[in-house]
Design brief:
two-stranded antiparallel sheet; mainly alpha; 368 residues; 69% helix; 2 strands
Length: 368
């Protein structure tokens, strides 16, 4: 795969109004930036996108805990807690559809789908400890219920089991791809820590952060389908780039929704990023739009030892005033269009390609 930052830089200046093809345009228009509901058509698109892998996803939900040996009461309780949640399973879904595109249906299908979710889940366990989070998917976090030590150790256990399942494939490219992605995910978290409360966080660096935090792992999940099917390197690279772009788009939408969704819909406290000192794109974009007085107010808020809910409300009103959440979703649209272009350029048109494209579009339209 091309260097992550090069891919980000290529897209940074892409006009968000560009459509991939006249008959494949992405419609992300809503009645307003505060519209948090999905239209019937958007719900239908998401359901249709997942319908071809409905059986695989149901089986994975049923079996996902069975791949991890759980020898202690604590690990059993934490695993039951985190896997009982109705997660989105975006990464396994993209892996399953990539496997269908590449005609793979072998013995590693379900275990590697589990790996795609395991690494994501383990990273969330660790993230919640770092962020001292109390709510995820409308439930108390594992660290809130069992303590930081248990949450970190169960995360380590899940990472370790994922590594075993990777190695069992015998595919060194798959192991190297996943290992490199996990390393980059950790680098992304460290980069985020270095830029807490940094209003001068540049867009390039922020997009590189999203590449590390989300893009590389979704890219790895898509590449895995091509690896297991034995496709040549150029096809593997194309699917990885596709997933990488989708991953960045996915995270950009999360950033936007943090300012325009409600807690009960989003599954975790909204406007929580800024409370934790995390400066995301809706705030970064204010640097080029807001008045000098407004920018000084944001800097004053970020320099506080403790950012209050009232402070966040002030910044949120500026996000709404200048529609930077919507501008962030426009960036997500550009990354999604890039991903779809990659599919069109590297894979012949068929029903499996259409299904993968439909899921990419439905992720762009999601509003939780």
């Amino acid at each position: 795969m091309k260097k992550d930052l090069e891919s980000v830089n290529h897209l940074k200046h892409m006009p968000t109004s560009r459509a991939v093809k006249e008959n494949k345009k992405l419609d992300t228009s809503h009645s307003g930036v505060n519209d948090i509901s999905l239209s019937d058509r958007e719900k239908q698109l998401l359901a249709e996108a997942l319908l071809p892998i409905k059986d695989e996803l149901l089986l994975l939900r049923k079996e996902i805990r069975s791949f991890i040996p759980l020898e202690t009461e604590t690990s059993q309780q934490v695993a039951e807690h985190i896997f009982a949640s109705e997660g989105k399973f975006v990464r396994p879904a993209l892996f399953f559809l990539s496997c269908k595109l590449c005609a793979y249906d072998g013995p590693h299908l379900l275990p590697i789908a589990a790996v795609c979710e395991y690494v994501h889940t383990a990273s969330l366990l660790h993230d919640d400890v770092v962020d001292d989070s109390e709510l995820r998917r409308n439930k108390p976090t594992a660290n809130k219920s069992w303590g930081d030590q248990a949450a970190v150790l169960v995360g380590d256990l899940i990472y370790s089991r994922a590594s075993e399942l990777m190695a069992a494939t015998g595919e060194m490219d798959l192991v190297e791809t996943f290992a490199r992605s996990i390393r980059k995910m950790s680098e992304g978290e460290l980069l985020q820590l270095e830029n807490i409360c940094n209003f001068n966080f540049c867009t390039d660096t922020y997009l590189h952060l999203l590449s590390c935090k989300t893009g590389v792992w979704i890219g790895a999940a898509c590449r895995a389908g091509a690896i297991l099917s034995g496709l040549p390197t150029e096809k593997r690279d194309a699917l990885e780039e596709f997933g990488h772009s989708i991953g960045i788009a996915f995270q950009l939408i999360d950033d936007a929704l943090d300012y325009i969704s409600k807690d009960e819909i989003f599954g975790k406290p909204t406007q929580a990023d800024l409370l934790e000192g995390k400066v995301t794109l809706p705030v970064i974009l204010l640097r080029d739009i807001a008045t000098e007085d407004e920018k000084q107010l944001i800097i004053y808020i970020l320099d506080k030892e403790n950012i209050s809910a009232e402070d966040v409300s002030v910044v949120s009103k500026l996000v709404q005033k200048y529609r930077t959440a919507q501008l962030t979703m426009n960036r997500a649209k550009a990354f999604t269009e890039k991903a779809i272009d990659l599919l069109h350029e590297n894979f012949e048109e068929n029903i499996q390609r259409d299904r993968l494209e439909n899921l990419a579009k439905s992720l762009l339209l999601r509003v939780y």
